[in-house]
Batch of 4 targets.
Target 1
Amino acid sequence: MHLPNFIRKPLVRYIRRRLAGEAPDQLITNGDPGSILIERYNLFPWLRIFGVHVRAHEIVCSDRGRHVHDHPWWSVSVLLEGYYYEMHPVGDLAEGKSLDLRVTMREEGEIIIRGAAQAHRIVLPCSWGSYLQPDLPCLSMFIHGPAIRRWGYWSDDGHWSAAK
């Protein structure tokens, strides 16, 4: 499912204008404070009273070297600018079962709906096609509901551990 350009382009302009010069509300790292993965901005904080969060995510670095992760809530991602590759397990996740990962290219305008336990990892394309070059960032709108579980990581050999 894709968001039509006549909606996506004005939405991108609105978000870019709104965030211009603003510091992110949250920086998501891979555990090292100097390695930012996502710059998160809260777009409509008043929606929280209904248990819904709408955020802009400037994804600036891949989840390289990390295990696939799940989330504590259902979510909808709308890829507004750029593209990325999403790695996600094939079949059911089960403790002790090794993970087979499938790669899906997520395109500009794509709408991705995920359940809370749906694991994934985001890999951005690299400039000039080289793994050694910086990642090409992308912008998404990330909508999620209230937390219904803990979140964590799935190792390659199928073991889940809670995020800290």
Target 2
Amino acid sequence: MVKYLKEIPFLADIPDSILHEWSMRMEERTFAPRVTVIREGAVDDEMFLLSKGKLSVHKTSPTGQLYKVATLQAGRVPFFGEGAVFDTDPRSATVVTDEACHCVRVKRADWEWFCQRYPQYALPICTVMARGIMARLRKVNADLLHLYLNRAA
């Protein structure tokens, strides 16, 4: 599994021995195309590191229809579902595979273990996650402003 983890850019500089130790607490998952990996509203405690493949993120409209809000691709967006390792709120979106995907599942307890044991490696990962979360927040803010301005016109 270390080979897959090394393909994820923000893990590439972590020593193999540490990645191996952490990987013993993870689970490799392979998903076929059109599989729901995360369901909006579900409560769980895992995030995924994406080493291969492409997924779509969907939100549910008030009428119950799914609409696509983002595409995630290995290399560009190497993780998803990270909110579940930080809090216990229900999932905010549904994630569906667009093509076959290889992921590594990280449970909240195992993320916390890594952070406590190797804070010098966890902090840069948290920074990458925070940047991803902030980019999504900025996009949502821009989308809301666009909707507001179009509605006011």
Target 3
Amino acid sequence: MLNSIVPQMQPWKGLEMLLWKEMQGFSKRFKRQPAMFKLSEKSISKLAGVHPDLVKVINRAIEITPVDFTVIEGLRTKEQQAYYVKKGVSKTMRSRHLTGHAVDIAPIIGGKISWNMKDYKPVVDAVKQAALELKIPMEHGYDWGWDGPHHELLRSVYK
């Protein structure tokens, strides 16, 4: 499978290749759950302006996740981003949210958004599985250890 994908996505180097190999190993460990959830109208509206490939991943992830989730934010304005940087919510003005290449999603536990990182794992796993199935390379803030809600298209492939 990797050989059929990598040539189409050249140039892949270093970190990107390691991320792709990790995703392949992950797919063997992920157990599919029956579809139980769908995106709310509010979540769908927050995907406006987001890259179509990322929207496909989120739509597939909600079909296979064992935990419901909501889209918190997709596309941001420069003003919103500057506000988040000033508040310390974001670390950069080079956010992938500015170009529609990132979304923030959060699990819904007991009818409420959870900010507990342990609750993000099954949602992140569903997003990873969806990206792998759709052959869309991504990075996940959860893997960085500090930004559980964040998911973005791989910068080296999606400029």
Target 4
Amino acid sequence: MKKAAIILTGILALCFAGGCDDRAATAKNLPKFIKRLDSPDPEVRLRAARALNNYGPRGADAIPALARLAVEDPDARVRATAISTLGYIGPRRDMIPVLVHALGDEDSSVRGHAAMVLSKLGNLSEDTVQVLIGWLADEDRFVRIRSAEAIGNAGPAAKIAIPALVDALDDRDSGVVYSMAKALGTIGADAASATPKLAAILADSLSPTTKAMARLPTARVAKALGQIGPGAKEALPQLQLAMMDEDPTVRAAAARAIWQISGNTVDTVPVLTECLDSMMRKTYPNEDGEYELEPNGPARHIAKKTLEEIEAASSNDPSE
């Protein structure tokens, strides 16, 4: 116990000396932190794994030890932190077996961190996506969200997850629905089978009786429908309603989706133009307790991008 306390004190000393600071995580301290990963004290291993975050790609020498902890360490906090640090060092394809193994961990934090690192890798195999599909219904929302993100970034193999992603749109957690819609939108045209459910979610979120948190996925669902493209044309009535929403971001996202699906510029350009000047209430009040207005960044970004794309498409159209 005394030896572990000395090691822990040494780690803290290294941190104060700059070893835990991204600007001063020096090469000479790296072997010391790697050695700490073998400590019998879980607190020492945990702090060492956290300290290695700051090395980024320069911490590659720690990958074998971290991978071992991710699989074998008896402390779930250490396993989760080891996986997270592998992601900070820079996810590599040779880490995939360790990450897939961690997806089956009994601790949800470990599973969630494994999915999060896999999402950074992209271009996953169908076998890996199949494992991720199994966690879309995990009891922990963090795991469900991170698994959807990993699938969305998986590349062509993500197509096999479309039915499971559509089923997961029934989740009662709006944050999870947001992530499922994002994944389906990233898949694009092949996810056209999700249109009926996405349209229904959009309609429900626009209801005046819908609570604020339930409206979280509204703009994201509109975006997903636009990414699906012409195959989502049956959602145009709901998107037309969304284009009249009080939220400028929802209006802009709906207008963009309508243009992407149908090419309609008559109805969408005026809305997009109006969104360029949209304002939103600041998050915090001023000294008088009043909420001032500031430019609505998301709405303006969507509107500006879409208007530029419409103009480019028009200039490239020989019929114009």
